[in-house]
Amino acid sequence: MAGPDLKVRIGGVEFRNPVMQAAGILGTTAGVMRRVYEAGAGAVFTKSVGLEERFGYPNPTVVEVECGLLNAMGLPSPGISELREEVSKLRGWGIPVVVSVFGSRPEEYAKVSSMAEEAGAVAVELNFSCPHVGEVSLIGQRGDLVEEFTRAVKDAVDIPVFVKLTPNVSDIASIALRAERGGADAVTAINTVRAMAIDIWTMRPILGNRLGGLSGPAIKPIAVRCVYEIYEAVDIPVIGCGGVKSWMDAVELMLAGASAVQVGTAIMYRGLGIFEEILEGLSTYLGRMGFRSVSEIVGLA
Ligand code: SIN
User: Fold this and answer.
1) What does the pLDDT read at residue 163?
2) Nearest CA among 252, 195, 194 for reference residue 220
3) How many Cβ atoms sit within 10 Å of the Cβ of residue 278?
4) Ligand 1 centroid to residue 129 C-alpha, Å
5) pTM value?
């Protein structure tokens, strides 16, 4: 007997399953992203890319803390001209690749997104949510800017536009609404939580940038709350992200309202086998609970 249907449609694009790789994990080369897809991911998301090459912050850029990872890389990026080739290769292999985009002006987001579309991206995900790169974090905190920037990209491309939101705001649902009003086809929630760690012996912040973003298990309840609030407020799909390390976490985010989930930090700890593990657990759960399709559980909580 066939198992439950795991296919999902987001912004008109059909993905083979709802368990995707989060942006910023494992770099930007086509070879690595191909391995992620072959390991079972429903789609791959690139590290955020801008118009020009950007070097990012000095080391250390990542530090392990007791409840997850703290990172502040500073959006290092080869620039979209370089990344285009990798995106084209992935598309040539039939792998659905979503290009994560950052910038500081609406025209920049629009230009990078349109170059990503030309290269073969199935969608773009607008990063308005990096918690420590000034201009990017500012966009995500202001509904008017989220709407304006989203609209600029929508006017420039035909592929779906996802908007990745920051939890570092007092009312994430109202920001999601502005993304929807700007024409977003889906929102991704959440990016990392603004945080920091201090070395008690040097008596200094550990990260080169001092402040960073926390990911991993500690932020999952925050992600669940944000997805739940957004799901109630908007009519577009929500992609859940934040602390997913098991099929149970994926189910929890879907019950909160996520149509798909992204796995990030857990790949660092558990390797690529985590995709199959989550997919198997999800299928078994759906079968046991009597569901024929994964979309039936979205928002049930
Ligand atoms: C970084 O490159 O520092 C992280 C990007 C992000 O959190 O969006």
Assistant:
1) 98
2) 252
3) 27
4) 8
5) 0.97
Residue 294 has pLDDT above 80, yes or no: yes
Distance 76 CA to ligand 1 centre (A): 8
Which residue has 């940038």 as its token pair? Answer: 209
**pLDDT at residue number 47:** 95
The minimum-distance atom of ligand 1 relative to the CA of 213 is 7
Per-residue model confidence as pLDDT tens digits over 272-283: 999 999 999 999
Q: Specify the residue with its C-alpha closest to ligand 1, atom 7.
A: 130
Q: At residue 35, does pLDDT exceed 90? A: yes
Is residue 130 part of the annotated active site? The answer reads yes
**Does ligand 1 lie within 6 Å of residue 212's CB atom?**
no
- Give the pLDDT band of residue 1 (cuts 50, 70, 90): low
Instruction: Tell me which of 67, 130, 226, 241 is the catalytic residue.
Output: 130
Cβ atoms 159, 121 nearer than 8 A: yes
Instruction: Please tell me the distance between residue 75's alpha carbon and the centre of ligand 1 in angstroms.
Output: 5
| Ligand 1 contacts CB of residue 188 (under 6 A) | no
Contact 87, 139 (CB under 8 A): no
